[in-house]
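note to self — DONT lose this again. spent like an hour looking for the file last time. sequence + predicted structure for the chain T wanted, 106 res
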Amino acid sequence: MIRVALRGLAGRKIRGALTALSIVLGVALVSGAFVMGDTLKQAADSLENEAYRGIDGVVTGRSLVETEEWTQTPPISERLLARCWHVFAQCRRSATRSGACSTRRS
């Protein structure tokens, strides 16, 4: 069986060389695609981490109607903003004492 395969390759050298080249190129392209995908994911994660560095929480308004379209985030009320600042101040005081912040109501 091996002898037949070697005879076939010897008779069609160009075809064998092009087949080997296509296999090498295919493997290189697939592995390159994986490397590129991982690199882009790492870059996106790095950008997100840099953007949110030093931010412990985010308060945003919620829309009354859920849509698939992008819409501007609605503003939050003054009452909610005051409560957020109050919770933030509590966290800063408790974090300086214990190193952690908990705002759960008992």
